[in-house]
Structure formats: structure tokens, C-alpha cells
Amino acid sequence: MKDVVAGIEMAIVDVQKLFLGFNEHQLTYKINPQKWSRKEILGHLIDSAQNNIQRFVRGQYEQNPRIVYAQNEWVKFQNYQTYNSEALLQLWVLLNKHLCKVLLELNAASYANTVDTGKTSVELHTLHFLAEDYLSHLLNHVKQLKS
């Protein structure tokens, strides 16, 4: 987990510098109405952190908890486009620092515990897989923020 945490911590620094370098127009600009703006991408990453924190915690004491994330609905109904940009960034940073703490506290015996992430059918993933997948997902969206 230390490698995953180190990757998340590096992404935190990278995203802070990146996000602060954009003006409000660049943060809210959408290529088309179906695509997310940079603020909405960061909002999606906030939602992802919240859902994954639940997975890492509940996955330690519940057997196969079902934690599904409807990403488009979460972004839409929280209206990240109108969120204060500085507060949005602070929220994302703090959630990811907390997620790192949760991962560092995760008992190695729990790495093989599974969580159901399936929307329409059962999709069991180990906590170890979910941690690595979280980092991969995060880095993919960091690339989007840069473009």
C-alpha cells in the first residue's frame, strides 16, 4: 500500500499546482455539454475518494459490501461547476490525504477482502485491487486535467 499512497501523495502535489494555474474560465470550460469541465473532473475525483474510503473501511468489517457509484448523477446533482474553486481543491486534497491515512492503517490481512462494485451484477474486487485501481483512475484524470 505504501507505493499506492506515495503515488496519491505525488498526485496531490501535482493537482494542486495544476489547478491553481488555471483561471475560472479554464476550470469551467466544456468542450461540449456531455463532457465534464476541469471543475467537474475534480468533483468526480472527490466523489471517487468518498466512495473508495467507504470501500476500504467497510471492506474490513463487512463481507462483500455493495458500494456502487453512479458517477454522472453524483457530478450532476452536486453541481461542481458552481462550487468555489479554492474550496473544491481543498476538499479534494483533504479527502485524498484522509484516504492515504486509511490505506496506511489497512491491515495487510484485509487486502484480500472483497467489495461488490457492480451496478447490475455482482463484481467483487479485493481491497488491494481497489487501492491500485484508485491510483490508476486518479492518474488518468490528472492527465485529463492537463489537456
Q: In the CATH hierarchy, what is the architecture at level 2?
A: Up-down Bundle
What is the helix/strand order?
A: HHHHHEEH
Total domain units: 1
| Major beta-sheet overview | 2 strands, antiparallel
Write the topology of this structure.
Elements (H helix, E strand, L loop, with lengths): L1 H19 L3 H5 L9 H24 L9 H8 L6 H21 L8 E3 L7 E3 H20 L1
Antiparallel strand pairs: 1-2
Helix pairs in contact: 1-5, 1-6, 3-4, 3-5, 3-6
Key phrases:
Four Helix Bundle (Hemerythrin (Met), subunit A), 66% helix, globular, 2 strands, single chain, 6 helices, 147 residues, two-stranded antiparallel ribbon, mainly alpha
Description:
α3 (38-61) crosses α4. The protein is mostly helical and 147 residues long. It has helices spanning 2-20, 24-28, 38-61, 71-78, 85-105, 127-146; strands at 114-116, 124-126. The protein starts with a helix and ends with a helix.
Summary of the model, kept short:
With 147 residues, the protein is mainly α.
